Amino acid sequence: MHINLKHYGLDEYFQQQANSYESWLVARVTVQHREVYNVISEYGEIEAVVSGKFAYQAEDYTDFPAVGDWVMVERVDGNYGRTVIHKVLHRRSALMRKVAGAETSGQIIAANIDTIFICMSLNADFNIRRIERYLTMAWDSMASPVIVLTKADLCNDLPEKLNQIYSVSMGVDVISCSSENRMGYDTIYAYVEEGKTIAFVGSSGVGKSTLINYLMEQDVCKTNMIREADDKGRHTTTCRQLLLLPKGGIVIDTPGMRELQIFTGNLSKTFADMEAIAAQCRFSNCSHGTEPGCAVREAIANGSVSEKRFVSYQRLQREIAYAGLNSRQLENEKINRMFGSKGEMKRVKKQFKNKKSR
Ligand SMILES: Nc1nc2c(ncn2[C@@H]2O[C@H](COP(=O)(O)OP(=O)(O)OP(=O)(O)O)[C@@H](O)[C@H]2O)c(=O)[nH]1
Ligand SMILES: [Zn+2]
């Protein structure tokens, strides 16, 4: 069996990293169970576990592979048994969430997503503040967000809702759609590209599965069940979490994507307007409370910024602080996410130089 991994999104960025591990095979994670993964290599799909050394060296959950990750595995003959994951290649993007409980460590929900569709229905689920949260998270993941408003058929004030969305979406594309008449579906399709990975987030019931089934041209869960051994060797069936679309492109749909809590957020992009105004406050550390010369309070007073948006901005700021990370840690976190670690970044740079000078 020979599988063309380009269809699964293997491009120059990952191939170049993979080239530096000659004795291992490059593969992409398609399913994550608790400790067992499914990975697809050019020889087909196989179960995999991380090596003992890998687990020992991992500092937190984010170091472990996630669905969408490109990994280096040991070569195995034939498509049976389990292979060993030795390395996670540097992620181009990573969607994170808080780990349940009080821990401040994050968990990767999915990696290497190119376009993330933020779904919200135009009826019951409609909530501008929720869009702000998702946008903040999407920007931070380094995937490009697109807003998808579903159930347009159940909405009788679309222009007004769209205006509300535009006021917070800052140049992000907005698509409204309906499964009733397939309005907007072609526009969504236009974002799907050979070798590019997409994902859908949003509250339960907004219509994510409906859209995925449409793109897959079939009922995903019914047709993509795989039989495999669980941790205890029992045979179970699971749904693939990374799927090839029939006309090219890849969709990631993991249980964790379906409800997301904010872990880290990139406020400066979602709230570029607020930050620009805040930069004009007399004091650089202005809390926009009672300080004199506060440009934010002035903007609210003269109506150029809505009070609600300001409250939402402050709440998100607090949440990010609660996640236990200051801006410096956030930066480090980003470097880690992109390059594995600072040491790893140096190693890759060096490798690249050596290659060029050869
Ligand atoms: N009227 C209308 N109903 C829709 C539309 N899209 C989806 N639905 C219905 O909404 C319900 C929920 O849709 P799903 O696609 O299962 O929603 P989901 O976001 O995948 O939900 P979870 O699996 O819980 O995350 C289903 O009954 C769909 O038929 C739409 O555009 N218009
Ligand atoms: Zn101020």
UniProtKB/TrEMBL annotation:
Keyword Cytoplasm assigned: yes
EngC GTPase domain: residues covered: 111-258
UniProt-annotated binding residues for GTP: T150, K151, A152, D153, G202, S203, S204, G205, V206, G207, K208, S209, T210
CDD domains: YjeQ_EngC
UniProt-annotated location(s): Cytoplasm
Database matches in InterPro entries: G_CP_dom, P-loop_NTPase, Ribosome_biogen_GTPase_RsgA, RsgA_GTPase_dom
Keyword Metal-binding: yes
EC number: 3.6.1.-
Chief localization: cytoplasm
GO CC terms, sorted: cytoplasm
Cofactor annotation: Zn(2+)
One Gene Ontology molecular-function label: GTPase activity
Top EC class of this enzyme: hydrolase
CP-type G domain residues: 103-260
Keywords: Cytoplasm, GTP-binding, Hydrolase, Metal-binding, Nucleotide-binding, Ribosome biogenesis, RNA-binding, rRNA-binding, Zinc
HAMAP family assigned to the protein according to its UniProt record, in alphabetical order: GTPase_RsgA
Its job: One of several proteins that assist in the late maturation steps of the functional core of the 30S ribosomal subunit. Helps release RbfA from mature subunits. May play a role in the assembly of ribosomal proteins into the subunit. Circularly permuted GTPase that catalyzes slow GTP hydrolysis, GTPase activity is stimulated by the 30S ribosomal subunit.
NCBIfam families associated with the record: ribosome small subunit-dependent GTPase A
Similarity comment: Belongs to the TRAFAC class YlqF/YawG GTPase family. RsgA subfamily.
Name by which UniProt lists this protein: Small ribosomal subunit biogenesis GTPase RsgA
Organism listed in the record: Megasphaera paucivorans
